[in-house]
Design a protein that fits this description.
Protein name: LacI family DNA-binding transcriptional regulator
Pfam families: LacI (PF00356), Peripla_BP_3 (PF13377)
InterPro entries: HTH_LacI (IPR000843), LacI/GalR-like_sensor (IPR046335), Lambda_DNA-bd_dom_sf (IPR010982), Peripla_BP_I (IPR028082)
Helix content: 40-55%
Number of strands: 14
Order of helices and strands: HEEHHHHEHEHEHEEHEHEHEHEEHEE
Keywords: DNA-binding, Repressor, Transcription, Transcription regulation
Strand content: 15-25%
CATH superfamily of the largest domain: Response regulator
GO molecular function: DNA-binding transcription factor activity; transcription cis-regulatory region binding
Shape: elongated
Number of domains: 4
CATH topology of the largest domain: Rossmann fold
CATH class of the largest domain: Alpha Beta
Number of helices: 13
Length: about 375
Amino acid sequence: MVRCGRALLRLGVWNFDSALNRYSLILLPSRGSRLSEGGPMAHPPSIKDVAREAGVSPTLASFALNGREGVGEKTRQRILAVAAELGYRGNPYARALRTGSSNSFGLLIRNLGNPIFLDVIAGAQEAAIESETTVLVADSDYSFDRERQHIERFAANRVDGLAIAPVGPGESVELWHELRPGAPTVVLYATAQGLDNVIRVGPDARRAVRLAVEHLVEYGHRDIAFLTAPPELMADHDRLAELEVVCAELGITPRPVATLLNLTAVTERTTKLLSGPGAPTAVITNSDYTAHGVYLAARECGLVIGRDLSVVGHDDLPTAALLDPPLTTITMDGRALGRALVARLRQSDQTDHAESVGLVVRRSTGPAPS
């Protein structure tokens, strides 16, 4: 290690960070790049280095590098070229303190265990890269306390906007508004009733519910269970509202079933439902993720899905077609949701967005048992 360290000292700067218990190597500029007077720089290039090499003041260099007015175009291009040649990278924390902006956004998810949110994150990252911004992701795991803690940290780091799939009706959004007044706020997968100054982004939940119920009724089902979060954790009240509307139109009684939306809870709740009196002939879930729990419950109860019990999921995850039998589900582009939320955080679009949905019919649904 000592011999290696000495060799690295000849090449660059060997730094030991005891707090993080890790080594890091700061490499020198590549061969052919501009060096400071008197030899190689022994530190990352600063804005003063850029200014000196470009023959301007540090203030003018800062204006050019931060896209501010007051710099001629030729001078700006010269400063940018020097910065690129030196390998200059601005300090984002210093910039945030100076300007009040971090060029980053927060994305707070309530259940990162649900794979659809990975698609949303992927789409958000794609849009962020295209716009040269950063998306920071956190998971509240259905905890009000964790949700508030993450919001406080996002605000402390001066993120420029927040997209949140909230726990419950979204009361924590008010905390965000207090900490970062005027910052863009996008509410994801939530009705956010009574909240002002928010933009809503999510699937067309009402259309999704209607497609699922109408499909099952066409197969003759009249007793359809509808999985939903407990009232205190429910964020998407529009799903339940549409269930009541479409059931009234079709002359059937809505049957919402409240459960925590993790695999263990869904499996246990559905097992009790299917093994008790008056068991439903069909189940509509809020996601393909929770549909897996319904499959496990049906197996525990000795039921054959598609024959004894019909199941409809939501999201059309890659696993939906791999289940046995393949899952009938609502299809939607999760990446498009991620791109849509970044567009609204950047304020290039300030309208609500309902992502279009469709129905993919597979063998998990069939005629109601006689």
